[in-house]
Each structure stands twice: as C-alpha cells, then as structure tokens.
Amino acid sequence: MDRGLNNSRDDFPILDQQVNDEPLVYLDNAATTQKPMQVLNAIMHYYETDNANVHRGVHTLAERATESYEAARDKVAEFINAASRKSIIYTRSTTESLNWIAASFGNQVVREGDEIVISQLEHHSNIVPWQQVAQKQHAVLKYIDLTPDGQLDMDSARKQITDKTKIVSIAHAANVVGVVNPIKQLARLAHQHGAYMIADGAQAAPHMKVDVQDLDVDFYAFSGHKLLAPTGIGVLYGKEELLNAMAPAQFGGEMIDFVHHQTASWKQLPWKFEAGTPNISGAIALGSAIDYLNQLGMANIQAYEHELVAATLPRLLKIEGLTVYGPHDPNQHTGVIAFNLDGLHPHDLATGLDMEGIAVRAGHHCAQPLMTYLNVNATARASFYFYNTFEDADRLVSGIQAVKEFFADGIS
Amino acid sequence: MGLAKLNQLYREVILDHAQNPRHHGDLTKASGTLTLRNPTCGDVINVSVLIRDNQIADVTFSGTGCTISQASASLMTTVLIHQPVDQARQLILAFSHLITGQPISEQLEEQLGDAVLVGSVAEFPTRIKCAALAWHALDNLLAQKGVGNHD
User: Fold this and answer.
1) Where does the record place the Aminotransferase class V domain (chain A) (predicted)?
2) What ipTM is given for this predicted complex?
C-alpha cells in the first residue's frame, strides 16, 4: 500500500483520521506540516526528564536542557551548511527573522534615496517589514517582475538591482506560484552592486537541500513548523561578520554580558540576539525534526515530491475551466499548486473539497501584491509533503472534478 | 459524506442570488457607504444605504466575493429594504445569531424570509465570516450618527 516516501505516513498519526466521513487528505503543507511521533516524543521526553531554564543555574537539569538546546543549534547549522554555529539565531518564525533583519540590519544600512529590491511573488512577511524600512529611511522599494508563466524575470532583476540598491530580499521558493528562485544568481548580482542578499527560505528549507554558503546569501530565514517542528520556533541565519555588526532587536535577560546602571554589553553570537527565556522545547523539537528529515534525505524528499507534482499537474491542466498559476511544466513547479475554477470562488471550492476530506488553502496566501499582479482576488492552493501519497493526488483531482460538477449542476 | 452536505449550504435560492444578485451596484444618492474586507480571502464588499423617514429607502451592494458572501448580501438587501432602521438592526442581530447557530424566534425567522437559508452556514464554521460581511457593513452604517435622513 502507498504510504508516502519510505512509508513515512505511518509516523504521522494525525493523518489517519476521517474528516467529514472521508479519509483525510492533507494538502495544506505550505501553511504548516504535520508532526511525526519522533518529534512529539522529543517534546514529551524533554518535559518528562530535562525541563529547566537554559544558560543559567548549575544544576543537572539546567545543564541537560542547555546541552540539548545547543545541540539542536549544531543540527540546524549542519542542515543549511552554515560555516559556524554562531550564525544560527533562534527566532519565533520566518516572519520574526525577517522583521529582525529589516528593523535592525535594514535600518542600519539603508539611507535616504537607497533602494530595497523585492519581487512580485513575495509573502507579506517579506514585503511589509521592507515597506517599514523604506518609509522610515525615505528609501525606494522596488519589485522584480515575473515572466508570463510566473517565474522571476531575471531581465527585470538586472534592471531593478542597481548601485543604489542596498538590500535584495527574495523568497527562495514561492508560496503561491510554485517556483524556486535562482537565489545564487541573485546573490551574485546583488553583491556586484554592493547590496546584501536575503533569502526567505520558509517554502524551500522543508523541501530541498539548502546550502547557505553555496548560495552565498548574507541572511536566510525559515520556520520550524513548515518542516515537522512545532509552531513558535524559527531560524535566522546570518554571516558572522554581519551578525556581529547588527544590533540586537530585543533586549533583556539571557542576551547580556554585563549590565551597569546606565549601560549594558551583549553576549557573543549567537546568544546576543536571544533575549529572554527562549522556546527551549521548540528548539529541541526542531533538532529532532531535522534528524527525521536527514534520515529520509533532502534529495529523496525533493525527488519524491517532484514525482507527486508530475502525477498531479498534467491532470489538473486537463480539467476544463481550471487555471493553474505558475509554470505548467512539472519540471519547473514545486509541490505548491495554486489554482482556480472558472466562475467559482476558491472558498466555495475549498469548502467542497473539505466535504470530501481534502484540506487545501483558499485565500490570498498572504501575498496580496501577487494577487493584484495576477489579477485575481484569491486562489485555492494544494501543497504536498513527502508523506502525501499518489492516492492523495488522485483524490485531489477527482475531488476538484466532483466540486466542479456539483456547482455546474447546482447553478444550471 | 462527500458533497451531499454541500446541498444544505448551497441551496437553489442561494445559488440564484449569487448568480443574479439583487440591488447590486452603488447608490448615486446615499446616506452612507461602507467598504468591508474579509481578511482571510481579500474579498471586498461595499454597502450603500439611503435612509428616509428613519426607514431604509434603498440599499445596494457591490464588490467581489464567494457564493455565500454574494448571496448573503443580495438576500440582505431584499429583506431589509423599506424596513425601519430599528427593525432592520434587530433583524441583523437575529441573522448574526442564526449563522452562529443560536436559536431565534419564529417571528424573526419569518421576517428574515429566504435569508434564513443562509443559516445553514452555522455548520460550516470557516464560512460564517463570508455570510456576515455585508450585514456587518450595513449594521455599522445604521449605527453611525452621521447617517441621517435624506428627504
């Protein structure tokens, strides 16, 4: 029986349930992924045996908690091939990582008349923080356009990135149009113009091997919950020299070296950014999630998801009245597939699919500038992960057909 | 269960109102106009109302949205046009009870007419916002002090 990559589906008890009297097909992985028993057990184990605050106290539990928390940081560093563990800062989420980069580093380097370059396919969390910097510094926020099939237009990139550009911040993988952006090329282009390169890895890190040194990005952000870990833990990667020059975004306990009455000094990297008691169990669970992903192998995950896309996309394109956004070539498309049925609002489509036990997202996907660019109000979106099966893909295709027929009959 | 349950939500009357919305457009002469957004999908609804002698003389809506939001807005206009403002606000309150699964009196149900059919959205919690949007907009307009009588 088809149980996902390496029968991994068996590790995810949540997937084994009925929704609206139908077996659940979970296709909202771009929003958040489910958690395997191994990760849930890591959280349980931490609270059952090791719970204590980190980096303080001399007792044994505090030592164990600190050791696990820091061991997870090493796993993260290895996962994205960071040169040093000092480059790995725990945050709450991709959104928090990008906000810290923008509010702290962005405001340090961007001056009046400078340019910040993003693209038309960004998530709000890689748009709004840069709007804030641009407004505060009287800088210009520019957008790289897309090609007609929804890919980042490199000609437009070469036009938008100039010697005035200080920051280029682009999604590594898109959360609506399902493309992987050429971050390495963009980083080279940005650096040629003396700009810093930031990649939003929220939709990439869960699905492919990321090598921040090879990409030569200055900063990289991703979330734990989109790669099997719980919500509330994220990662900010930065080149060591840049993080050293960057001011902390938050202040308080844990991050200080010494506090005088009027001034204070900070701890070394990476702790200078981690003010307050951190999400210890979240970080440990993130480490466990990375262990799980490594066991499957990121290359295997990417290849398997590609097979799912290749089995799904051509059949979706054959449904009359269905529009798929982004490239139509499965070789160019990630496991994130956004679509609309003619004459039917995506909310109606998603409610119909939900009645068949199929969970998809419907809405603007926190990408309203992209919706405006594509001239739609909203779309439906199905997104795969390695525990999805070819049967899930079949159910999606037949589910959409059934909803289409329901509304065609209902309306006529 | 499949799609059978969908029939409860997408009744013929609802599909008809979504396809052929009543009082659709903008009033040239309005006592007040309000735009509300559904933040989950980016849908926008504009409601315009004309009040005369403390009565809703005319009400229209425009904008984009799903079947439920469009049908609900259309049904609202048919139910509330020519109603006294106080009565209209009572019916809006009754409607909001209905779509959140709270019981309402038979008398109110009768007055809400076909809009009662939208009440089945209570069984589809993620869609309640879609049904409520236009009614919230009109209620806000009726509650505004600036919306006076136009004679």
Assistant:
1) 25-396
2) 0.84
